[in-house]
Amino acid sequence: MLTFVIFMLILAMFLVLLRASIGPSLYDRILAVNVFGSNAALLIAVFTFVSGRHELLDIALTYALINFVGNIALLRFFSFGSGSHKESDL
User: Which residues of 18-35 are buried (b: 16+ CB within 10 A; e: fewer)?
Assistant: First the structure.
């Protein structure tokens, strides 16, 4: 059963990469990269469960947090530009 879950996660990651490469808009591509990062964190968590090495769960949570913060930063960059706005405009 866990082999099937790992296979489906890898398949979903492949399909999301395909979506990121042919996405119709920039925001669709950013969303696909976000889903890829979430699936990668989930894959690490499943591997942690299978291997019994619980210290890898901290790595999965850290990766998910970095993925979230990175996507917020990308969206702010593409929404507001490269820093041409003042702090009071944000």
Answer: ebbeeeeeeeebbbbbbb
Angle, helices 2-22 vs 26-51, to 10°: value is 160
Beta carbons within 10 angstroms of residue 7's beta carbon? 10
Q: Where are the domains of the chain?
A: 2-79
Q: What is the pLDDT of residues 39-60, one digit of tens each?
A: 999 999 999 999 988 889 999 9
What's the first-to-final CA gap in the chain, in angstroms? 48
Burial pattern 58-88, b for ≥16 Cβ within 10 A else e, equals eebeebbeebeeebeebeeeeeeeeeeeeee
CB 45 within 8 A of CB 53: no
What are the structure tokens assigned to 77, written together?
Answer: 């960059």
For the entire predicted model, the pTM comes to 0.80
